[in-house]
Amino acid sequence: MAFDLLRLSGTDTTGWVYRRRRTALEALFADHRLTAPWVLCPSTTDPATVREWLTSWTAVGLEGVVYKKLEGRFEPSFRGWRKHKARETEEAIVGAFTGSPAAPRTLLLGRYETYGRLR
Question: Which pTM was predicted?
Answer without folding.
Answer: 0.66
